[in-house]
From TrEMBL:
The chain crosses the membrane at residues 381-402. Pathway: Terpene metabolism; lanosterol biosynthesis; lanosterol from farnesyl diphosphate: step 1/3. Keywords: Membrane, Transferase, Transmembrane, Transmembrane helix. SUPFAM superfamilies: Terpenoid synthases. Catalyzes the condensation of 2 farnesyl pyrophosphate (FPP) moieties to form squalene. This is Squalene synthase. Its EC number is 2.5.1.21. It catalyses: 2 (2E,6E)-farnesyl diphosphate + NADH + H(+) = squalene + 2 diphosphate + NAD(+); 2 (2E,6E)-farnesyl diphosphate + NADPH + H(+) = squalene + 2 diphosphate + NADP(+). It comes from Avena strigosa.
Length: 403
């Protein structure tokens, strides 16, 4: 009933469901492309939806770029692979992309299928234009080398944290900027802004996924920097215990504050995009990130279970994000929601407030703000509106399926 208690989210949810059905009908007939798009839906349904914002040629390039990096990440994450085997694979992965005969079985579930049938990804890669191939090769080479470095190195300092996130996500920002440029749809964005686009998303995911990652069996590597968490606990895993809740939340707020430093760069990057399909592709995940930061901030539930944006709000963001006005409005509202949760007794509160105020100032100075009414808490709507929403859903589905 969560979504139904918010009538403004119901139509967006219906549109999202229809879009998901359209994706399945648009999967190409060729085996390699069919595998690529089917696998994309299985390893990331949200990305499979967002990628539909792009034109066909660029969509194919980004799809393969994503799957290549997912495969590389699968090798990095598989703790059963000995380092003397793993390191050469990571460093040489950019070469394997050109070889449809190369195969290395690892990972689990959908990721194992991706690795077992990686020849199909390679086949699709070889059909891309040379500009796309070179961009994907460059980023895969640099990312593989960076991953190899951190296999043998823990994330101790904030500089380490930034460097690791650069290798696994900032380089994705570089790659997307290069793919946009290769497609002739955008000027080549600066590396600093491209890097921040990746770091903001990656840091948000690292924060949100703390409990899932710390409880993973076999034990996975953690990327919260010791420089931050050691101020609040003797061991990173201590933060999940209820008796350490106060310190855990303080550490969480420190981590969110660290992530917020990238938000203004992200706004600058998005404001320079010329092509609306590229813009929507980039903007939707960034709004999700600032919204997730607002949800996670000062929220002990990050250490107790799954904390994420509700589906109805996600659907609204996907449906309503069409211009920089929408982006500025979303960043302003989510930053304001985060600001309302700041406790002045929190050790990071002054810096958090400073960064939130800078984001809000950038959004306000655009002159493009409009009210979206995004909320993260319980609905304010009454039961009568719930009934109206149900009636609206019935009408929409009736019209859609009558066609």
């Amino acid at each position: 009933m969560g979504a139904l208690s918010r009538p403004e989210e119901v139509v967006a949810l219906v549109k999202l469901r229809v879009a998901a059905g359209q994706i399945k009908r648009q999967i190409p007939a060729e085996e390699h492309w069919a595998f690529a798009y089917d696998m994309l839906q299985k390893v990331s349904r949200s990305f499979a939806l967002v990628i539909q914002q792009l034109g066909p040629e660029l969509r194919n390039a980004v799809c393969i770029f994503y799957l290549v990096l997912r495969a590389l990440d699968t090798v990095e994450d598989d703790t059963s692979i000995p380092n003397d085997v793993k390191l050469p694979i990571l460093r040489d992965f950019y070469r394997h992309v050109y070889n449809p005969d190369w195969r290395y079985s690892c990972g689990t579930n959908h990721y194992k299928v991706l690795m077992d049938k990686f020849r199909l990804v390679s086949t699709a890669f070889l059909e891309l234009g040379e500009g796309y191939q070179k961009a994907i090769e460059e980023i895969t080479r640099r990312m593989g080398a960076g991953m190899a470095k951190f296999i043998c190195q823990e994330v101790e300092t904030i500089d380490d944290y930034n460097e690791y996130c650069h290798y696994v996500a900032g380089l994705v920002g570089y790659g997307l900027s290069r793919l946009f440029h290769a497609a002739g749809t955008e000027d080549l964005a600066s590396d600093q802004l491209s890097n921040s686009m990746g770091l903001f998303l990656q840091k948000t995911n690292i924060i949100r996924d703390y409990l899932e990652d710390i409880n993973e069996i076999p034990k996975c590597r953690m990327f919260w920097p010791r420089e931050i968490w050691s101020k609040y606990a003797d061991k990173l895993e201590d933060l999940k215990y209820e008796e350490n809740s106060e310190k855990a939340v303080q550490c969480l707020n420190d981590m969110v504050t660290n992530a917020l430093v990238h938000a203004e760069d992200c706004l600058q990057y998005m404001s320079a995009l010329k092509d609306n399909t590229n813009f929507r592709f980039c903007a939707i995940p960034q709004i999700m990130a600032i919204g997730t930061c607002a949800i996670c901030y000062n929220n002990v539930k990050v250490f107790r279970g799954v904390v994420k944006m509700r589906r109805g709000l996600t659907a609204r963001i996907i449906d309503e994000t069409k211009s920089m006005s929408d982006v500025y409005s979303a960043f302003y509202e989510f930053s304001s929601l985060l600001e309302s949760k700041i406790d002045d007794n929190d050790p990071s509160s002054a810096l958090t407030r400073k960064r939130v105020e800078a984001i809000k100032r950038t959004c306000k100075s655009s002159g493009l703000l409009k009210r979206r009414g995004y909320d993260l808490e319980k609905s304010k709507y009454r039961h009568m509106l719930i009934m109206l929403a149900l009636l609206l859903v019935a009408i929409i589905f009736g019209v859609l399926y009558a066609k």
